[in-house]
Amino acid sequence: MQTRPPHPPLPPAPHGDGEAEVAVKTLGPTSRAQRALPIAAMSAGMVTRQISVHPSDVVFLKGIVEASDGLCAIYAERGGDLTIVAPMGRDAELAELVDDLTRELALPPGGRS
After folding, report:
1. Any idea what DSSP says for residue 25?
2. Phi–psi pair at 49, nearest 5 degrees
């Protein structure tokens, strides 16, 4: 991950009563923040599973994924339409997780509601 170099400090702006005031520069959004990478690009070379859950279940599902110690990542395009991706070689573990989630959230087999 690239980090930005620190910005040099801004010179104090003159204030009418002789006091110095620091000028504040606000950075706008970067081009990276303006557009997200397509899910197809994010999941290239990965094992993927598509599931649809109720939008209120997305936070629960993200919590489970975060607790899975790096097994997978989750991406959402809108609402509860999710893509779960895992590295190649961990497909059996991912299938087990999706099966467990399917039972827990009462989804039809394959994870689609």
Report:
1. -
2. -135, 135
Which tokens in the block code for residue 99? 């099966």
pTM higher than the cut 0.70: no
Per the CB < 8 A criterion, the answer to whether 101 and 113 are in contact is: no
User: Strands across the sheet with 73-78, in order?
Assistant: 46-52, 81-87, 73-78
What is the rounded CA–CA span in Å between residue 110 and residue 10?
56
Look up residue 23 and give its two tokens.
């000028």
Q: What angle do CA 53, 56, 82 make, to 5 degrees?
A: 35
Q: How far apart are CA 82 and CA 49, in angstroms?
A: 8
CB within 8 A of 91, min separation 6: which ones? Answer: 47
Rounded Cα–Cα distance for residues 94 and 72 (Å): 7
pLDDT digits 0-9 by tens, 68-108: 888 998 888 788 888 899 999 999 999 999 888 888 888 76
DSSP string, 31-46: HHHHSPPPHHHHTTTE
